Amino acid sequence: AGATMRTEISTAAAFVTRLLRAAGGIGEEQLRCFREYLQEALREHYKHHWFPLVPSKGSGYRCIRINHKMDPLIGKAAGMIGLSHERLFQLLPSELTLWVDPFEVSYRIGEDGSICVLYESPQPGGKVTKPLESRISCKEEWRTGRSSPSKNYNMMTVSS
């Protein structure tokens, strides 16, 4: 399964890296390292949960989620470049869902946002996947989603 998920994982890691870059304040070298660490974490996490013949199988396991809790894979990659969870919450949307499935990577910002497709390739055997939604609405939503006022959450920090 290793080679077949490379594009999907690369697409997902690049997307999260772009969100961090857009927020600003992180150097290019740190971003490059973050992307590499995230790709490695995703590869390891998905290793036994990648089913190209049944793309939806294991989808929940492969879902990357920020919902007032930081996704552990993003948190781990960020920790490797010295970014705290608190800093990540400032830089990334407070609600982000990223689905990394065979042949498709898509995301949603906010609980009620539209689902936007980042990557889609035809499945072997000529199965037709669902048509792409309008990319303009996705881009607009991403822009407006980022410019909405950030909510303040009380966060408990635990230090060891």
From TrEMBL:
Domain Anti-proliferative protein: 92-111
GO cellular component, one term: nucleus
A biological process term (GO) from this entry: negative regulation of cell population proliferation
PROSITE patterns in the record: BTG_2
InterPro entries noted in UniProt: Anti_prolifrtn, BTG, BTG-like_sf
Classification via Gene3D superfamilies: Anti-proliferative protein, N-terminal domain
Family: Belongs to the BTG family.
Protein name: BTG1 protein
Species of provenance: Bucco capensis
Native organism taxonomy: Eukaryota, Metazoa, Chordata, Craniata, Vertebrata
